[in-house]
Give the backbone structure.
Amino acid sequence: MSHSAAVDREQMRSHSNGQDWLVSWHPGADEPAGTPHGAAGVCVSGAGQLVLISEDGRHWGFPGGRPESGESAEDTLRREVREEACATVISARLLGFARGECVAGRQRGVVLVRSFWRAEVEVRDWEPRFEIRHRRIVPAAEAKQHISELDETATRITYRALAEAGLG
């Protein structure tokens, strides 16, 4: 199935954990209001390779996660990349934000905002210690061939992040 990248502020429907969400992409200079919900990184090694992670070995995406107490978005990115991808962020550039508003379900009315970054990384030996059990390193030029998010909306957000990172 062919997916297009998300466009600015387009509201896309998504269903997750029994809830309905409206998800949209916002450029880096236009941080939307909402509760910070972490950071994700388009991680590129010096060799022009893209680092992808997976919990199950079937669905592949970017390393990322939720903030811990007192962390900035960039601090969250650096920690999550270290923990999930066994890589060190050398430099990071903000790409934009995904905003999700719950419109039906137990979190109705909640608005969550996740930042997306292009991170230049140094890949370390693979020693998984957290929930991520799989890492794949692929040519950055082939990124879309290896992304397999859980739904169309997540894939469109991922494709937009790749485009903003200069890889899509």
